[in-house]
Amino acid sequence: MLAASAAFVLELTGVTRPRVAGEGWAGFVEFLAILAVFATLGRYSAEVLFGSVGDALRAGVSDALTSLANRRGFMAAAKVQSMQSLSMWWGDSQGATRDLIAKDELEKRELIMLRCLKHDRYDVVGDALGTGGTRDVIVNVKYHDSENTTHLTVVAGPHSRWYVQNVDLKPLQSICIA
Question: How many angstroms separate the CA atoms of 74 and 60, rounded?
Fold first, then answer.
């Protein structure tokens, strides 16, 4: 917004040619109004279509008993193949993995998980308290003609946030190579 305003002022004062909007300060105000409308519409559209990061964080915090929101967020990130979203849900008792390991290593691991967790549909078929306060979740993953069952280990992190700590990828090999 600042760069666009500076460009407009340069146009307005005649430093550059041709002019981009109406004459004088009225044109500048019109330009700022149009810019604000499109910026607001873009932000609103992005949050409606993709959800906000704040919504994702609140969902992970608010489900301290079952970690249900975490599983949904993790599997939704896998479905849309979003490394950024996946990194919000993957971690351990110390916090998000994205804050704990080097970025290149993080991206390599996330790419492997996304490839193996892509799915058309998933169902949680089991959920039990694991050792050390973890939750063991059994997930049935369906992708095209392949249907496999795997285990997720979910653990509480800082501030009662839940993270998927481990995914057993061996049962998902037919999806990984698809």
Answer: 10
Of 144, 150, 174, give the one whose Cα is nearest residue 164: 150
Q: Where are the domains of the chain?
A: 2-50, 53-176
Q: Which parts of 16-119 are beta strand (E)?
A: 91-92, 95-96
- Displacement of CA 155 from its chain's centroid (Å): 19
Domain 53-176 has CATH 3.10.450: yes
The per-residue pLDDT for 64 is 47
- Is residue 113 packed enough to be buried (19+ CB in 10 Å), middle (13-18) or exposed (0-12)? buried
pLDDT of residue 62: 47
The β-bridge relationship of strands 162-167 and 95-96 is: unpaired
- Separation between Cα atoms, residue 29 and residue 36, nearest integer Å: 10
The DSSP symbol for 81 reads T
Instruction: Report how many helices (DSSP H) and strands (DSSP E) the chain contains, helices first.
Output: 7, 6
* Length, in residues, of the chain: 178
Cβ atoms of 153 and 164 within 8 Å: the answer is yes
Closest CA to 92 of 154, 137, 136: 154
pLDDT in tens, 76-91: 889 999 999 999 999 9
> 3-state DSSP call for residue 155?
strand
